Amino acid sequence: MIASSQSTTLVNTCCSLKPLARDSARRRTSTDRIITKGRYRGRMINRARQKIERAFASSSASSSREEMMKEIKKLKEENEELKRMGVRLDRCDDVDIDDDILPIITEVIPSSSSLKDVLKKAGGLRRDPRRDSDVEWPLPITMVGCPIGDEDKKPFWETRPKNDANELFFADDATAAKKTKNPLKISHVTAELAPLAKVGGLGDVTQGLGRAMKMQGHDVEIILPFYQSLVHGEIFDLKHVMDFDVPKGMKWDGENKVSMMKTSAYSGNIGGCNVILLKPHDEANSNIFKGGKIYGGSYNELDAYLYFSRASLEYLNVSRRNPDVIHVHEWQTCAVPMLYWEEYHGKTNLNKAKIVLTIHNLDNTGECREEEFFATGVNGAKFNVIEKALDERTIGHNPERLCLMKGGVIYSNKVTTVSPTYAKETLNGNGGFMSNILKQNKDKFLGILNGIDYQLWNPALDATLPANFAPGNKMTENKKICKKYLQIGLGLDVDDSKPLIVCISRLVPQKGIHLIERAVTQSEANGNQFVLLGSGHSDGGFKRMANEEFSQVNSKNVRLMITYSDALSRLMYAAADFVLVPSMFEPCGLTQMIAMRYGALPIVRSTGGLADTVIDCDCDSVNGNGFVFHNADNNSLDDCVLRAIKSFKDRKKFASLQERVALVDYGWEASGNMYASLYESL
Ligand code: ADP
After folding, report:
1. Quick check: helix, strand or coil at residue 92?
2. Is 201's C-beta closer than 6 angstroms to any atom of ligand 1?
3. Atom of ligand 1 at shortest range from CA of 561
4. R_g over Cα of the chain
5. Which of 15, 59, 23, 38 is nearest to 5 (CA)?
């Protein structure tokens, strides 16, 4: 650190810059001890340079100025190099700024008036411990999840800082997104949005796609239920926008009656996306979206999402937003296209929107009786015919039923699903009853691979990690620290030579429960390590195993964490050597892509989006990025895991494989461009 000589000095985390030449005592007091670690990005460097040049112009310290310019040039080159490596260096917590620099920097960058802003413009790995002893190691958790000896404390993964959603605004200008010449107004209607309202991949995708389109210059708004479980303090800039009436049907004394449900719209920002949150006004008399969870709270989901679909259209109508595109997702919002074309288009302020439906998973298609559909205030009989939303399988049953997903397909202008292979699989009959409907509508149906948001999933900046890394920048050393951190925290053997396989998944039959169980028992038997993070309606068997044969007392190699935690998942991706995704079917899958980004090799069953994204290393040594098996039996899994572990044994080769895999590009750019073309084609 420089303390005494005259300097306006940028010191980065990797190399301390030398003090610059001497100057007068007067200048020493004003610009002395201006010390910072961190790389400054282009714009800031330019402004800083102008300021510094002005400051030096009045003195005769030309050698100082030259030296300063040299240092700035060097930093710029380093930034270019890091950008080229795909490392987004927007912020560095380690930045250590002497108080004296603040007035100068804030003067240099008038729009950035706080230290926080300055930090966001700085680069470097966010946390870069030089030695093991710099790391504050966690206290191992006990069976009940608290650190040993301190029951009042949170488990270790919850004590780390969270990623700050506000950072996203500052990261936006760092993307290479091509700006559109034809900005569109896009309104998404969705049940999930990461990070606050996320249960699985749907939340990640609405956030990632929404942000990708926003960065291209489109005007994107995401309409979301105002779930009671959302933490208000984590919604940035939350404001009440308006109250309006939403028609809501119900049976009263044997008669269908429509009453008006007062609804409030709030605006805000969640994870870098502009949101509109809708909430029934009448809190005392309505259960809608109440409870401590997104799904499975204390409300009737079908009734609530039908109300939400109608409320979204009412909001779009009264707000006069008149979007070009309404993009709906999953069965929960399929009533939107149905109601839009029957009740709104041409009859209200909504007169130009076209509708895109994305099917993220055909596991649930939204079964609905005619009278249940009346929750929208519109009689379901209108849709209860073969050409509209009648579920053909129920013909002759009492009662016959609607299928909301079918209605969504029929009434949308375009229908997408989340990978090309899943699109093919569904057309080939693997989509159950919906396969026929999609075949009949195949001209408007296509698969677009999901991406992951590279600013949100970025091991160089991820605040939840004890050590950050990027390809070419401390990947091996700092991944080792993350692994050790997880091993200590979970009470596993602290041993880097043991391959660590993790699985982060909803625990439902789709995800290959029997294969996850097999991997758990085989890992224990073979002396490998395995950590599961998951929850869901098939988690009962795992709960038992977690408390018995794989409890802290009984196993030093396997830990089963039956819970949901974003922070723990991030730490696990960073710590892992391998991430297992043995799905029976997988529309896209994001975990294998996140794994790669965090330098872990995916081990996957070849189905849907997993087949589109993972190439077996033993079949293709140049492009291989994981390990793939085909059949859903134990032997196929065991063989594949064995091959993966074999690759791990040659640590040098494995480290370079990790570096290469972390550079594979599954960001939103390519898929975002495909969605942009789709929107423009409507
Ligand atoms: P799906 O949408 O079918 O659940 P995806 O692979 O598309 O599967 O997306 C799963 C997302 O949810 C990933 O971001 C993954 O990290 C996350 N996730 C799944 N289970 C958990 C959990 N128990 N805790 C934290 N995150 C989880």
Report:
1. coil
2. yes
3. 23
4. 27
5. 23
Asked whether 229 and 192 are in contact (CB, 8 A), the reply is no
Does 506 sit in the ligand 1 pocket, CB within 6 Å?
Answer: yes
Cβ(590) to ligand 1 under 6 A?
yes
Instruction: Write the burial class of residue 508 (CB in 10 Å: 0-12 exposed, 13-18 middle, 19+ buried).
Output: middle
CB of residue 566 inside a 6 A radius of ligand 1: yes
**Ranges of residues in the chain whose predicted pLDDT is under 50:** 1-46, 56, 58-63, 85-123, 170, 173-174
Q: Is the CB of 535 under 6 A from ligand 1?
A: yes
Pocket test of ligand 1: the residue of 204, 295, 532 to mutate, having most ligand atoms within 8 Å of its CB, is 204
- C-beta of 204 in contact with ligand 1 (< 6 A): yes
Q: How far away, in angstroms, is 568 Cα from ligand 1 center?
A: 12
Cβ(461)–Cβ(91) under 8 Å?
Answer: yes
User: Which residue type does 107 have?
Assistant: E
How far apart CA 601 and CA 502 sit, in angstroms, is: 10
Each residue's pLDDT tens digit, 363-401: 999 999 999 999 999 999 999 999 999 999 999 888 899
Does any ligand 1 atom lie closer than 6 A to the CB of residue 384? no
SS3 assignment, position 240: strand
Give me the residue label for tokens 């070419």: 472
Q: Are 583 and 607 in contact (CB under 8 A)?
A: yes
C-alpha distance from residue 452 to each of 153, 234, 262, 664 (Å): 33, 22, 37, 12
Determine the Cα–Cα distance for residues 470 and 149; give it in Å rounded to an integer.
35
CB-count exposure of residue 243 (10 Å: 0-12, 13-18, 19+): exposed
Q: What is the whole-number distance in angstroms between the Cα of residue 534 and the centre of ligand 1?
A: 8
Tokens 């409320």, residue located: 311
Contacts of 175 by beta carbon, 8 Å cutoff, 6+ apart? 215, 455, 669
Determine the atom of ligand 1 nearest the C-alpha atom of 361: 3
pLDDT by residue (tens digit) across 513-547? 999 999 999 999 999 999 999 999 999 999 999 99
